[in-house]
Amino acid sequence: MEEKEISQAVISRLPRYFRYLGELKDGGTERISSQELSEIMKVTASQIRQDFNNFGGFGQQGYGYNVEFLYTEIGKILGLHKKHHLVLIGAGNLGQAIANYMNFEKRGFIINGIFDINKDLIGKRVRDIPVRPMEELESFVKEHNVDIGVLAIPKEAAADVAKRLVKCGIHAIWNFAHMDLNVPKDVLVENVHLSDSLMKLSYNINRCGKPEDHK
């Protein structure tokens, strides 16, 4: 059977469902209706049901959703039941913040190696992971079966580093560099442009006005 194509809009909502369901599970909630979940998440109940129906529905009429089961199933859809091995390129402030974020490991994302060109950083340890020189990148990736490359470097270096990662077999890049990467079609790239998010917030402030503007 041909696998159903799921829209990116649905996929983008899955992590949010996962997060809320995790909080409900940890709080002791055993089951929940789409209407109750709608009120918590500010997404319509109809949208929730449509989203879940893309993957089989998960609920029972008159019962709702078993929170722990739904949390586990969405985790599987997101691939969180598997471990993913990462290398982090860039040990500056942003790179260190990423490396020190503990929740990645809870979700199965393991940072195996950190790399930088700055000689003052090489040899230092971040979360007990030594910062290695870029010359060791290719051999390290192959030796540790790395799945994902994380770019926390200036945009001027991002294109060349991305090519090196692709050449040594990495098929997924989490890109914090402020540029869009030109990579082969079979390489997945998730761009995180922090300033874009801030500009979107600025737009909404400008459109809605500040509280004092309405006095």
Commentary on this structure:
The chain is of the alpha/beta class and 215 residues long. It folds into two domains: 8-77, Arc Repressor Mutant, subunit A (Orthogonal Bundle), CATH 1.10.10.10; 84-196, NAD(P)-binding Rossmann-like Domain (Rossmann fold), CATH 3.40.50.720. Helices cover 43% and strands 17% of the residues. The strands form two sheets. The chain has a seven-stranded mixed sheet with strand order 5-6-4-3-7-8-9. Strands 1-2 form a two-stranded antiparallel ribbon. The termini are far apart.
Features:
215 residues, alpha/beta, Arc Repressor Mutant, subunit A, Rossmann fold, 2 domains, seven-stranded mixed β-sheet
Summary, kept brief:
This protein has helices at 8-26, 34-41, 45-53, 67-77, 93-99, 103-106, 137-143, 155-167, 194-208, and strands at 31-32, 65-66, 84-89, 109-116, 125-126, 129-133, 148-151, 172-175, 188-191.
How many H/I helices? Answer: 9
State Rg: 21 Å
- Residues in helix, %: 40-55%
CATH architectural group of the largest domain: 3-Layer(aba) Sandwich
List the domain count as a whole number: 2
Order of helices and strands: HEHHEHEHHEEEHEHEEH
| Poorly predicted regions | none
Total number of strands:
9
Distance from N terminus to C terminus (CA atoms, Å) equals 60 Å
Structural class: alpha/beta
Spatial ordering of strands, largest sheet: 5-6-4-3-7-8-9
Characterize the largest beta sheet: strand count, sense, and whether it forms a barrel. 7 strands, mixed
Mean pLDDT: 90
CATH superfamily of the largest domain: NAD(P)-binding Rossmann-like Domain
